[in-house]
Amino acid sequence: MLLRMSTTLLRTLREDPADAEVPSHRLLLRAGYIRRAAPGGYTWLPLGKLVLDRVTEIVRAELVAIGDQEVHFPALLPAEPYRTSGRWTEYGDDIFTLADRRGAEHLLAPTHEELAALLVKDLFTSYRDFPVTLFQIQTKFRDEARPRAGLLRGREFLMKDAYSFDLDESGLRAAYDRHREAYRRIFDRLGLDYTVVHAVSGAMGGSASEEFLAATPVGEDSYVGCTGCDYAANTEAVRTPVPPAGDPQAQPATEVHDTPETPTIASLVELANERRLAGRADWTAADTLKNVVLTVRRPGAETAELLVVGVPGDREVDLKRLAAALAPATVDIFDGWAAHPELVRGYLGPQVFDKLDIRYLVDPRIVPGTAWLTGANEPGRHATNVVCGRDFTPDGTVEAAEVRSGDPCPGCVTGRLTMRRGIEIGHIFQLGRRYTDAFAVDVLGPQGKPVRPTMGCYGIGVSRAVAAIAEQHHDERGLVWPAAVAPCDVHLVAAGKGAQLTAAVDLGAQLAAGGLRVLVDDRAGVSAGVKFTDAELIGIPRTVVVGRRLAEGYVELRDRATGERTDVPVERLAELVSSEVRRSVV
Fold this sequence. Notes:
Blueprint: E1 2-4, H1 23-30, E2 34-38, E3 41-44, H2 46-65, E4 69-70, E5 76-78, H3 79-85, H4 87-90, E6 96-99, E7 105-108, H5 113-123, E8 132-141, E9 156-166, H6 169-189, E10 194-198, E11 208-215, E12 221-226, E13 232-234, E14 255-258, H7 265-274, E15 289-297, E16 305-312, H8 319-326, E17 330-333, E18 359-362, E19 371-378, E20 381-387, E21 396-397, E22 417-432, H9 434-438, E23 443-444, E24 450-451, E25 454-461, H10 462-472, E26 474-475, E27 478-479, E28 490-494, H11 499-513, E29 518-521, H12 528-538, E30 542-546, E31 554-559, E32 565-569, H13 573-584
Parallel strand pairs: 1-29, 4-8, 16-18, 18-21, 28-29, 28-30
Antiparallel strand pairs: 2-3, 5-7, 6-7, 8-9, 9-25, 10-11, 11-22, 12-13, 12-22, 14-20, 15-16, 15-17, 19-20, 22-25, 23-24, 26-27, 30-31, 31-32
Helix pairs in contact: 1-10, 2-6, 2-10
């Protein structure tokens, strides 16, 4: 393949676009890989499409290698299967919906579990047809409220989704493990630094799931690692170690104190120590019980219900963790204080929630026998020795408190968690029978009785992976593509005019004839400095400079990643570059 910059649809930008928030967005636009077409939608230009295709082919090759079969479902789907599964309402505003001219409702598919289950029901009748795994690489849609960060958070994106069907749980686990290892090979080949973390299943459902997160400071996902073991988890999936329970009756009696002007935890702790409440002068925020009022709306519900979440006062409620714990319900901060005078803002305590018939969920650290400094449900008053299991009984526990560096590891207990950020590039699920139950997918088993298959689901954000690679592989001058995904193997730059320009085109043709992917900067009237700047911005692994030493039979070979420069005889260029390409591409 030979591309000439004089004729290729490629326009580089000298300045960063005003709306580019993260390096991948900025550089992919500046280097001429993508162009914004609409909020959350991008046009792939020729170089960008080449990168996208190379990533796609690596993904496809590894899936085919483990026996997956490629299909292609429609993107425009009828609403009925999603109503049957419950996801029409669970997805809420996150999906694009529309009606055809006859008024029938449709959606633009976010994922295809329903269609995969229906296809298997349609075609498979016997246990002999299993196991089977189907996959597709297709454009998906999501109605993002605030599209941002270029390809990282768009409304339209390319995704690989695979669906495994097995007759029993051991088969599901084997399929899950096969895809887990295939994902490792894929992301290794893509040159990504990633971590596999425990995750929550969310609207997908299922019993277990893991995410593959590409490490980057601009990542939207927070996750943790452990200083003492290999535990890693998305913060939404972190489980809090539960302390031992005590005897609620062994605690001192509750006392109510005047605590004027203390609507915040900090002001309350300061006053409690000044006045030695309950005979103590060592109060900390961790000794207080913070009660946060929220509203929860279940899928399809017309009205929201009140929920109060109790967490130790040194923690904030993490709405993302709470939303994951309560999914598919949606959560919002409560703001209807005027309509609920029974809730005393700033002085709430759990002693009254049962009487008010308000659901109360607490952090797992709030166990029976623990005593707290918390609101007395009167303006300007708090209570000490409010004991869980004696003075209040929660309706359950919920993982809603923020996770922090230094927290104990739930895996090994002795280690400490460290906070990190990453981009979700893959997610795998053990779905179980949620969808085969919904559509009554049964086949004849070996004993002549019906058997209901169990499912796994395995997704990779293909277009997002391109952005993740760009996030991890760039420097202050531009992109630095790994050889396996670069749009071309070599970039030829004619530093001068006339003979040098002609020689660059001829060399490019020779290299392309030898099977290499070549980009030649043959633009007339463009200075060498601009060409070199563009070459570094575009980020192809090797640049060949056809310059002054051409008359002596030499060209200069530059390595984009290391900056190393070597003078190479023209007659050996094809051999040398071909050898480097073979070594660098996995």
